[in-house]
Amino acid sequence: MKFEGNNILSVSQFDRESIAKILQISAQMAPYASRQKRCHVLNGAILSNLFFEPSTRTRVSFGTAFNLLGGFVRETVGQENSSLSKGESLFDTAQVISGYSDVIAMRHPQMHSVEQFAQGSTVPVINGGDGANEHPTQALLDLFTIQSEMMHFNKGLDNLNIVLMGDLKHGRTVHSLSKLLSLYNNVKVTMVSPTALQMPDSVISSLSDAGHEVIITDTMAGNLSADVIYQTRIQQERFASKDEADLYRGHFSLNKDVYQKYCQENTVIMHPLPRDSRPEANELDIDLNDLDNLAIFRQAQNGVLVRMALFALTLGVENQLTQYEKPVNWYTNKNV
Ligand code: CP
Predict the structure, then answer these.
(1) Are 270 and 300 in contact (CB under 8 A)?
(2) Distance CA 292, CA 294 (A)
């Protein structure tokens, strides 16, 4: 796959080779993200960060990643603060914003809206999440996280046994991750959800058509013994009402008791975050916070590395990083 000048809209764009390239460049970003060195390879470049739906990690880590490579970030947050609220089309918005920027990251609540927007853009567009459809950069950082966590157990991305749990119907992160996992060998995926919130058929097919074992269940007991358990939140914003979302909240809470009963001793716990910590939901209990295998905050940090790599690749500077290195001359205790 050619990255330079191209959009990142869907995980369907990637093959194993292009993913390996992204993960390799992501690892090269670690010294910059941990402030051992800095890199100003994108000095003067401008990122437009357009977030038309709430976000903490994706928005801030896109901005941080661009800043860490020396670039400037311009933000638009919320449809109500943009001229989309006056009836401007995504195409017109893209024509205008791409004239102001070198690259655009965008999140929008409608499925396929980022692809529509990209048709009007003259610069690369990166999908930061389009409704219940996809979240490709999250899937890449999830894969990077799985790879680095599995290294501790001398395992890789092949022969992986993974549980996906929660709202699998609306959770775009698990849709994108499943499609990426289908590219690896001998993957077993157990999908634990309420029947009404099962994974879409098209996503299940992407795994089963590639010859992988897929188990679909609405029961935690006996089904959580895996290398990785990937928990998700009930995506209230995708339901017709809060009352409907309430029907499913709290059914698949993972806490220390459940972990000790049903998971392997070393099962790695992931979650794209945010976790819903309200008592009625509590899908990932804080009593797991002291577990070494709780990877959720390492996972969020990895988002910076992967987004730095995607900027370097789409703007064609991935081979120039070391030429633009400088020392860090301020106090820092950061560590990757
Ligand atoms: N994981 C994720 O997309 O988080 P945010 O919604 O906070 O960006």
Answers:
(1) no
(2) 5
How many other C-beta atoms are found inside a 10 Å radius of the C-beta of residue 324? 15
Atom of ligand 1 nearest to the CA of 129: 3
CA–centroid distance, residue 117 to ligand 1 (Å):
20
Question: 231, 254 in Cβ contact below 8 A?
Answer: yes
Q: Which residue is associated with the tokens 């499925």?
A: 111
Ligand 1, closest atom to CA 59? 8
Phi then psi for 202, rounded to 5 degrees? -65, -35
HSE at residue 146, side-chain half, CA atoms within 13 A, is 27
Rg of the chain (C-alpha set): 20
- Ligand 1 centroid–CA 270 distance in Å is 13
User: Which residues, at least 6 apart from 87, have a Cβ–Cβ distance to it below 8 Å?
Assistant: none
Using CB atoms within 10 A of its CB, is residue 326 exposed (0-12), middle (13-18) or buried (19+)? exposed
Cα–Cα distance for residue pair 183/96, rounded to 1 Å: 37
| The pLDDT of residue 335 is above 80 | no
pLDDT digit string, tens, across residues 303-329 = 999 999 999 999 999 999 999 999 999
Q: Phi, psi (5° rounding) for residue 191?
A: -110, 110
**Residue of minimum CA distance from atom 1 in ligand 1:** 272
Take atom 3 of ligand 1 and give the residue whose Cα is closest: 58
The pTM for the full model equals 0.96
Looking at ligand 1, which atom is closest to the CA of residue 300? 1
Pocket (CB within 6 angstroms of ligand 1): 55-58, 129, 138, 272-274
pLDDT over 80 at 336, yes or no: no
Best residue among 49, 62, 138, 145 to mutate for probing ligand 1's pocket (most ligand atoms within 8 Å of CB) is 138
Helix 136-151 vs helix 16-28: angle between axes, to the nearest 10 degrees? 70
Q: Which atom of ligand 1 is nearest to the CA of 135?
A: 3
d(CA 179, CA 144): 15
- Average model confidence (pLDDT) for the chain? 96
**Residue partners of 203: CB distance under 8 A and separation at least 6:** 174, 175, 178, 179
